[in-house]
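input
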Amino acid sequence: MSETPASSIDRQTPTIASSRPSQDTAFFAIRLAKNRWARILGVAFTMYLLAFVDRTNLSMAAPFVRDDLGLTPAGLGFANGLFFWGYILLQIPAGRLASTWSPKRVLLCQMLLWSFISLTTALVQTPFELALNRFALGLAEGGVLTCTLVLIKNWFTKAERARANALFLLTFPIAPMIAGPISGLILTYSHWRWMFAIEAIPGLVWALVWWWAIEDRPSDAKWLPLRERVELTAALATEAEQATETISGHWVSTLWHPSVLLLALYNFLALMAEWGVNFWFPTVLKETGLSIGLVGLLASAPSVLGIITMLAVASSSDRLRERKWHMIAATAVAGVPLIVLQFTGGGTWATVICLSIGIGAFLGRFGPFWTLPGEVLPASVAGVGIGLINGLGNLGGTVGPWFFGVAKTQTGSFSLALAAGGVSLLLSAAIAVLIRVPEARK
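output
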């Protein structure tokens, strides 16, 4: 007997219905690939997350590396601090190349280089080799943040930029949430050398995605809808014309611009505290008697508050079009818990709570902070200014871990170092009050 039309339709209906989810998924993926917030910030976020993991995973392996290589706490802090000496060398050259040539290409080269160097950390055998490896890793990652901020400045207007910077810099709270448990898991079942090898490979793979997805500016992006491309290019050009600040003479004069120097000094004092706390936080928890697996989980606790703080402060900063005082408030609030911790007895939960509040509040500064250089400097030299601010600021990264290690060696605890970190944050907030932010022309 032949089939009726109705029965034919009934048999075809499930096939049509089952194909619809895949069509919807494909349509959503296409729209997402053409959305600049998702494409530019998503790919850049993942890139910097991988860089952050490769930069900070030594802190998780610190107890094991110290034992295998025969390092004191001060010696390990010194070796880790050499990362920042390498990190500062390429800040200004990379920023200049990003502003005048191509942030996309500069970042691609750096991604390949730092991933390879991180992989070779698994091969170090002596304290000298570890110190040299950390210096080389810093050299390879130098300018990554600077170039990415130039890229964001090319893609987002002033009214969007604090949120764009904050979304990108969510890597700071999210990376520990990912790296801590993963590193803890690897260290629980394998050797610390395998941790460095395994965590370096994703950067080599992501370089392919970066080359495919990223363009230097909206006018180069054929994937961006034509109307949006034209309107965005025009809006960014108008903002550049309305800038009130100019740099007379050679671009090198950017290096002694008053606002740049104040931002660099502010960043130095703030990052001295941040990197000291972040690097030794797992060790502080480990010394309370916790297992390395539980340390990995608790080390991610500050990130939860940090994510909320970053998004809230950045949204408020964009809504009010105010940067400086948002940055100052977040920095000052971050310093208070580090000082209060000295009066709590230093128990495990008091340490976790106080440091979580301190690190979480500190992370809130990043959105408005990294928006400021683009508002006080012309576009042609913004990369140079950002490079100097980031480079000199990260000298604090050499001092922080080293000072915390020396304090631990001399006093037997991290109490003095944490208190000094709180004072450093309050002092940096006071210095930021002196920064002059010009008003844009109407």
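quick obs: The first helix runs from residue 5 to 33.
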